[in-house]
Design brief:
Layout (H helix, E strand, L loop, with lengths): L1 E7 L3 E8 L2 E10 L4 E9 L8 H15 L3 E4 L2 H9 L8
Parallel strand pairs: 4-5
Antiparallel strand pairs: 1-2, 2-3, 3-4
InterPro entries: Acyl_CoA_acyltransferase, Gcn5-rel_NAT, GNAT_dom, GNAT_YJDJ
Protein name: N-acetyltransferase domain-containing protein
Pfam family, one: Acetyltransf_CG
Length: 93
């Protein structure tokens, strides 16, 4: 089962994906002021490529942004592409 957890620190944070308890992916972000986060890196373990791990992490970031009235700046190419492909999450851009 895929699970995405968040670790938030003062200036940076990350979303960590695990699949049945095993590391599956990591997406990092930096804070830009009090109301924006910049997604700067996404990586998925090769064994989980094509299984929706990256997209799940982006959607978790969107959920976090909506709950906290934040905007997302997707600098990471993968996150940027995910926003371009999925219109329903663009409200947080």
């Amino acid at each position: 089962m895929l699970e995405v957890t968040q670790n938030n620190r003062e200036t940076k944070g990350e979303f960590v994906a695990t699949f049945d308890g095993r590391p599956a992916g990591l997406m990092t972000y930096s804070w830009a002021g009090d109301d924006k986060i910049i997604i700067d890196h996404t990586e998925v373990e090769p064994a989980y490529n094509g299984k929706g791990v990256g997209k799940a992490m982006v959607y978790k970031a969107v959920e976090f942004a909506r709950e906290n009235n934040l905007k997302i700046i997707p600098l990471c190419p993968f996150a940027k592409a995910t926003f371009q492909k999925n219109e329903e999450i663009r409200d947080v851009l």
